[in-house]
Amino acid sequence: MGLVPTITPILDHDAELAKAEAGVAQFAASRNDRWYPKFHIASDGGWINDPNGLCYYRGRWHVFYQLHPFDTQWGQCHWGHVSSADMVTWRREPIAMAPSLEEEKDGVYSGSAAIGDDGTLRFYYTGHRNLADAIDPKRSLEVQLLATAQDDDAIRLTKHGMVIDCPRAEVDSDFRDPKVWKTGGIWYMTFGVSSAHKRGQMWLYTSQDMIEWSFERVLFEHPDPDVFMLECPDFFPVTGPDGEEKWVIGFSAMGSKPHGFMNRNASNAGYMIGSWTPGEVFRPESEFRLWDWGHNFYAPQSFTAPDGRQIMYGWMSPFAGSAPMQEDGWCGQLTLPREITLGADGDLHTSPVKEVSALRAGSADLGAIELQANEEHIIVDDAEAVEVELTLNLARSTAERMGLKIHATNDDSYTYVAYDDQLGRVVIDRQAAACGDRGYRAAPLSDEELSKGVIDLRLFIDRGSIEVYVNGGRQVLSSYSYPSEGPRAIKLTSESGVAHTDALKIHQLRSIGLE
């Protein structure tokens, strides 16, 4: 295989991988599992962030992720790895990459996977070097690198070095996170850039052989001058129910400012829907929309499955300061895998992949329930890992807020997932949370949804987190929730009025096998 020229590592990669494995093992040996997820992907120990290299290869699903194996805070990035035959039960694989080349000596940063025409699984990723000095303490150099899988399980990767250098005069340090795909016989690569004028952009390169890459154009520049970098970019086509194809551009906007309910996190991951023709710029036809309205969603990556589904994982970022789980020997988890579809409403819907239902280990159907004003009803005495399906009847309810208190413990702490009738939104409210950051987040409901008079909620409650899917994934909220010691109840609640549910089901969920 004619790849890039031979490279000279500055460190022995196998030795660096062994050090990283030992670092993770040290954390894992004393890890506190009070909030450690049962059905979300997380590292044994240490810090994780962005999902990377998502793919289906020779009979297994693969998820790689950013990993700092020597601390529970962000640091020198490696690539962790898990795989699965069914996207239900997962196997922890050896750490895939550690910094060993000059171009990546300060971090093996994020990237994506692509299977070439020859069947070779390739990983394009960013190498990071710190070039800080007294004049510019944040200065760095980032370039795009290539690695390939050497076995059917993608356990051992071979690095082939740099494929795209950074044009330093045109870039303000940030130049990372490649996404690769093929359209019309040509391979394309886009990645995020902070331009010399500190504008958030996505650049486009092309290749015939996946080795030699040429700059084509700036694919997209964010219209907000406050946005100085577009991290973890994504770009893919979707087809709506009417058969019309659209293109989706996704990115995590650094520098976006809060405005009302929008952009409440430190940085905010979202998308725009539009059109693209090879050889041209992306033309947005929608405004910037959030992938997820929760407190802790960032850096998503998607890939196309063999059956055509567009599947996405996100990182549940702690964002606000020190996260309580950092004291427990680990920090960070990924979301459930979500299928992206274009709905008849012209917007994207993201719902858990169908495989997730195989985690159900027992179910209870509680039917319809009516609560009087300011009444609470315990529906689960102690919930460690459960899925809840809930239909709220707005037409028959007068409550100002109604929903579920999650992780409700004996010290009166909880996290509240509710429909707020004054806002016309679904909220996650952490004002009564026992640990960690508080505040609330609110996902919108369209006039069409509100006019139907019912809201379907699907909640996935893990030991330390909640994912809420609204109306089949038209909106989603993902947030950490750290309960106190003792039983973790779920309470159906009404505030200042009657609350009526048309349906309520509880599913106990089993482990995915990574505990």
Automatic annotation (TrEMBL):
GO biological process, one term: carbohydrate metabolic process
Domain of life: Bacteria
Domain annotation Glycosyl hydrolase family 32 N-terminal: ranges: 40-352
Single Gene Ontology MF annotation: beta-fructofuranosidase activity
Occurrences of domain Glycosyl hydrolase family 32 C-terminal (ranges): 355-507
EC number: 3.2.1.26
Entry-linked InterPro entries: ConA-like_dom_sf (IPR013320), GH32_Enzymes (IPR051214), Glyco_hydro_32 (IPR001362), Glyco_hydro_32_C (IPR013189), Glyco_hydro_32_N (IPR013148), Glyco_hydro_beta-prop_sf (IPR023296)
Alphabetical UniProt keywords: Glycosidase, Hydrolase
Annotated family: Belongs to the glycosyl hydrolase 32 family.
UniProt-recorded name of the protein: beta-fructofuranosidase
Species the sequence originates in: Bifidobacterium tibiigranuli
Organism ancestry: Bacteria, Bacillati, Actinomycetota, Actinomycetes, Bifidobacteriales
